Amino acid sequence: MTERTQHDDTGSGTHDPETVHTFDLIDEVPGASDGGADPDGVDPADDGADGEAKPAEEPAPRGPSRVALALAGARTAVGQTARRGGAAVRRRLPTTRRGKVLLAGGTAVVVVLAVTAGVLVNAQLRERALVAAPGGVRSLETKPTEQWSIDLDNPIAATLIEMPGILAIAGDEKVRGVDPASGEVLWTVEVGENPDCGSATHIGSGGRGGAVEPADPLVCVTASGDGKEQAVTVIDPDGTATTRELDPAAVVAPAAGGGLVSFELRGGDQEPRPALVDKLGVPHLPKGFVGPDLVVRQEDAATGTERWSETVAFGAPRPEGCVTYSDNAPALDVAGSLGWDLHGDVIEVEGCGVSAAFLLDGTRLDDPEDPADPPAYGVDSASFGSLPDGGWVRPGTEPTEGGAPNDVVHLPDGGTVTLEGQALLPWATDGRDPGLLLERVGVRTEARSTDEGDAGARVWTAPDLWATALLAQVSGTAVVVDDPGAVRAIDLGTGADRWTIDPDVLSLGGMGRTADSVVFGAYTDGDTLLLPVAADPGGEGTGLRLLAIDLRDGSVRWEIEQDTPYTQLVAVDGYLAQITQRGVVGLG
């Protein structure tokens, strides 16, 4: 962010914001240098005398995202080339009068070439940032067509996962590593029945999903149909794989960074039994009921070495959180009521009298000593999420105008911003940081600065915009869904309206609060926004529409109607791949 100026009343838009927020491309990447060394002179590879990581009293700061690494790599290469070129030029400067005249005459040409080179480098940096960003696609200018296809025996059960430069297709008891541009199968790993591989994107990109970094390595858990065998396979981007057996009764989930998370109930009363219900059907727990504690543990998936573990103590349970239903018959089922969700860098777990949230590095996000601190003791009206450029969002303890808890934003630089409402996290970005965060406060939308100097300062307020989802944050424009279901583009710097799409175009009429049940993702090339939309939200049809919206004016550039129901559409290294009724296809 470079400056704020007073709002121009003659500009477009219906709002009257007090300030203007402008921003530039990132010119420097914090923590990155030409030589790759730590700015404090510490060798990042030196983890200790014996090669093991030294314990830290506080959680280590989170590393740069893949967007920052891509930008750093590009700028380092450009800087080294410029320095070498400058040295070569200085060694060849003319010393004669004729030579100096010729040099002066050629300076204009050199300047033009330098400017042109600078534009090309800037375009390269933008493309690298875009491709590395969530939902970034190389080009959506024209209607994509099928470039390649791979048939699967059971495509609906398959999963697409992004690895560094690789599209991993998990299905048919194997994982295929595929070139996303050509569809060439680079390697195949046999993994076994029912592979659960992660971290994978959710179907749809709404809610608190957060950006999912490429899996490196990819972790897959498989279990036999009779439940007697369970194993984990770890696959590197080059197809090298290792497999080890697991306890068949272990409750585990694959995680990013080569991790495996387990959930184990210990102690307490775990015996399943019929639940007691009153005349209204409300369940009640037995008198003096004490349920088990929960041990959350993450280990290295390849070796089984523990990375961290924490015990979530049994607290004051809600009876409905301890009950499951089979054939409409309620049962007190502690193990069956346990559930978890891994999204972005966040693990959330909830069960009978236990509830907690962690970062993948083991940092506890909720306060176990405070019953009012979500999600402790089963408060599930709010959730945690990851910011696109690092940091995370957690629910606070204060009620908002809408009744839900407020959000607290933990910025990558360590700062904290307490919001009055709920943060709106983008489904897709172009990899550029606008230096602000949007939040929903009752029936209005506000922007807060995330810059270190004035973090939390209110940048603008849109009193007539009740945003329920932030589909994209691209090129200074935010594309949101409002409560009535319209899709609206607003200026990120001022909050002024740019264009509006009628709810009927996306079949969102009256469904603004449940946009992720109609719109299943967002993808952009910086100029166009691609939205996969349910052809018939009413449920009578099962088809899908791919709508490409021009970010300049909101017009529909092109549309593709598909008979296949929505399963999964992903962008890998800027290339689109989609599961269909017969397998996987590449679109371009």
UniProtKB/TrEMBL annotation:
Parts of the chain that traverse the membrane: 101-121
Domain of life: Bacteria
Compositional bias segments (type: Basic and acidic residues): 1-21, 51-60
Keywords: Membrane, Transmembrane, Transmembrane helix
Acidic residues bias (residue ranges): 40-50
Alphabetized SMART domains for the sequence: PQQ
Domain Pyrrolo-quinoline quinone repeat residue range list: 466-565
InterPro entries on file: PQQ_b-propeller_rpt (IPR018391), PQQ_rpt_dom (IPR002372), Quino_amine_DH_bsu (IPR011044), WD40/YVTN_repeat-like_dom_sf (IPR015943)
Disordered: annotated segments: 1-64, 365-404
Name of the protein: Pyrrolo-quinoline quinone repeat domain-containing protein
